Every structure is written in structure tokens, then in C-alpha cells.
């Protein structure tokens, strides 16, 4: 179970694994507003991955961040975090989720496609460095 005092580990992992830079206070905000969609994976009391999602309507959610330590990638950590999220969303009768991903991030695109997401559209210049993003979505 995630404890708020572990937030520093989440922020550190986000900094190490994600290209975008986020104000650290945003993590507390997401945890406080959507604690059931702020998921962490740990191994021997060490954070190895996390996921942040938010509800955007009664029937829709958005996946904002998903990160796994590099040495634990392709070992099912991200898949397990998504599975828990999908279960939570189903319990809340949310049946649609979307996310943005860099159009150049082929491993992430393939990962999300493996979990039932499809590319819905492209947003030009979405990221801080001007890169384009795909909006990917999944409904059930």
C-alpha cells in the first residue's frame, strides 16, 4: 500500500524515467484527488514502478503517467499496474481511458497496443520539446 511519505520515491523515479519534467507538487495533487488511481509497484520495499490516472468524467479516465525502473521493464510490472487500474475503473463503471504518448516512443506504443489501446489521433507539438503525440484510447 502506498504511503504519502513515499512520494519522494515516486518523484525521483519520474525524474529518472520520464522525459517530461513535472512540478513535484503535481504528484501530491494527483494522489489527493485520485488516490485509487495512483498506483505503485514495489519489490522488497523498493519502488520499481508507478502509474497515475485521473477520472475526467463519470465514464472516462486518463492515464497520465506510467513508469517502471529500467531494470524491471519487460517483466510484467507495467502490465500489472494497468491490470489493477482497469479493475478499479470497471468497479467505478468507467469504460473508457485515453493517454498521450510520443509518436517516436515505439516500445510504449506497442506496450499500450498489447493492452488493447489504439491510436485515435495525432497532436502536433504536444510535448515540451515540440514532439508530436498520439492520443491512444481503449473502451470496454
Task: Tell me what the structure shows.
The two termini are 27 Å apart. The radius of gyration is 14 Å and the shape is globular. The chain has one domain (4-139): Aminopeptidase, CATH 3.40.630. It contains 4 helices and 6 strands, in the order ααβββαβαββ. The protein has a 6-stranded mixed β-sheet with strand order 1-2-3-4-6-5, with helices on both faces. It has helices at 7-17, 25-33, 77-91, 106-114; strands at 38-43, 46-55, 60-68, 96-102, 118-123, 133-139. By secondary structure, it is α+β, with helices and mostly antiparallel strands. The mean pLDDT is 94. The longest helix is centred in the middle third of the chain and has 15 residues, at 77-91.
Keywords:
alpha+beta; 4 helices; 140 residues; 6 strands
CATH uppermost class: Alpha Beta
Q: Give the terminus-to-terminus CA distance.
A: 27 Å
Shape call: globular
Estimate the mean pLDDT confidence.
Answer: 94
Q: What structural category arises from helix and sheet content?
A: alpha+beta
Total separate domains: 1
CATH topology: Aminopeptidase
CATH architecture classification name:
3-Layer(aba) Sandwich
What composes the largest sheet? 6 strands, mixed
Task: Give the uncertain stretches in residue-range form.
Answer: none
Helix and strand layout, with pairings?
Blueprint: H1 7-17, H2 25-33, E1 38-43, E2 46-55, E3 60-68, H3 77-91, E4 96-102, H4 106-114, E5 118-123, E6 133-139
Amino acid at each position: 500500500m502506498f504511503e504519502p511519505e513515499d512520494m519522494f520515491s515516486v518523484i525521483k523515479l519520474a525524474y529518472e524515467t520520464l522525459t517530461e519534467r513535472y512540478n513535484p507538487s503535481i504528484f501530491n495533487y494527483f494522489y489527493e484527488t485520485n488516490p485509487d488511481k495512483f498506483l505503485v509497484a514495489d519489490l522488497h520495499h523498493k519502488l520499481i514502478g508507478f502509474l497515475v490516472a485521473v477520472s475526467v468524467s463519470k465514464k472516462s479516465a486518463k492515464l497520465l503517467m506510467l513508469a517502471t525502473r529500467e531494470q524491471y521493464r519487460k517483466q510484467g510490472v507495467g502490465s500489472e499496474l494497468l491490470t489493477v487500474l482497469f479493475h478499479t475503473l470497471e468497479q467505478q463503471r468507467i469504460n473508457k481511458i485515453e493517454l498521450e504518448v510520443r509518436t517516436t516512443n515505439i516500445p510504449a506504443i506497442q506496450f499500450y497496443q498489447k493492452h488493447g489501446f489504439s491510436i485515435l489521433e495525432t497532436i502536433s507539438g504536444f510535448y515540451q520539446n515540440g514532439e508530436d503525440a498520439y492520443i491512444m484510447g481503449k473502451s470496454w
